Amino acid sequence: MRRDVRMRGFRERTSVEAALAILEARVGRLGDERVPLVEACGRVASEEVTASVSVPHFARAAMDGYALRGEATFGATAFAPVALQLVGASWPGRPFGGAVGAREAVRITTGAPVPEGADAVLMAEYADEEPSNAARPRVWAREAVPPGKHVAQVGEDLLAGAAVVAAGRKLRPQDLGVLASTGVGSVRVIRRPSVHILVTGDELLPPGSIPEGARIVDANSLVLGALARRDGAAEVTVTYVADRREAVRAAMGGAPEDVVLVSGGSSVGPEDHAPLVLAEIGEVAVHGVAVRPSSPAGFGFLPDGRAVFLLPGNPVSCLCAYELFAGPSIRGLGGLPRAWPHRRRRCTVGRRIVSEIGRMDYVRVRIEEERVIPLMTSGASILTSTTRADGVVLVPADEEGYGEGAEVEVLLYD
Ligand SMILES: Nc1nc2c(c(=O)[nH]1)N[C@H]1C(S)=C(S)[C@@H](COP(=O)(O)OP(=O)(O)OC[C@H]3O[C@@H](n4cnc5c(N)ncnc54)[C@H](O)[C@@H]3O)O[C@H]1N2
Ligand code: MOO
Description:
The chain contains 7 helices and 28 strands. It is of the alpha/beta class. Pathway: Cofactor biosynthesis; molybdopterin biosynthesis.
């Protein structure tokens, strides 16, 4: 779709739902790569991993004591202990080589292989060993142990063939431990997207500068970069682009990253080149959304299908447009859930939240004594409205806001 809305304004605006449906249909998951387990935490498994061996793969002692045949201890009590011949020892990594006979026992420590012939472990607390200088040392059992007692059977933790992680699993620290215990050293995970932030605006100075004259300091690249990393982006590159069409075209066309975020220049002013350039080199799918703020937001696609997001320059609009459209797409590319990652809290409206039918509203709110208070703010250039707020309430297009006492869900900023 080619259209130049500059200085004409938006005739119609796309609903947020329709815009999201386009993104869902067109921005799929990236391919996968193999990474060593030490780098796999937080990554999303691209395929199911099954255990090729059981864990443990040998029966092992769960207590320090004596491996024996449970039957041999039947009837043993503190008053009538049963004597067993001590024939050796089994240590973790250094098993007992022989077999345990009917009235024999082997000294064993936790984690050591239970020798052939033995089926139970008598805890050291219930045994008395004869001094080791005895010719044929014996151990006295003061308690009976049934067969199986204190023996971890083969596959008790995990059976060979069982699923260890499912495809789509965001790997937890303990997943890495289980994978390693089955002999796995690396895992296939979904690639994390790279993101290029194109910052337009001749008035902008890079972060770290002191604002002076008519020049202000770029805030959007920091906000966008941090949001993209939150959403799983691997690398984030920032480029400052002059408000000239050729410069915007060169930057947008030359970006090799998986996603391009354009900050500013998205609206209908004569210097708003980004939508036009995108239409020239690719396709504008949406420009102008029924949402406040960030109504001039849009997005489209480069010829190879990579998404370009047109984010309004006003900092709150930029943040809002990112959260609505770019965030779900970046998460989706990396195999993460598209839904907003914010914690949510249900609260009662303490002061009326005003909205307009026909557009979604992104309302910054404070939570005071569990009551939701919308921040009175004059516009989308007031970035401190988002630092003073505890979170945001999204009012759908078919709601006229919420009256005092209504229950709403707050998406928390922290
Ligand atoms: N005739 C119309 N004018 C405007 C409309 C409209 O519908 N019709 N929409 C307004 C709305 S809403 C917004 S939002 C802005 C969006 O415009 P742009 O995306 O073209 O943004 P800029 O003009 O480049 O900048 C707007 C504002 O934000 C400041 N800015 C820009 N980049 C940054 C940055 N990286 N860090 C901090 N601040 C930034 C910039 O200096 C401007 O003050 O259009 C309205 N106009
Ligand atoms: O939405 Mo503009 O996006 O209000 O400042």
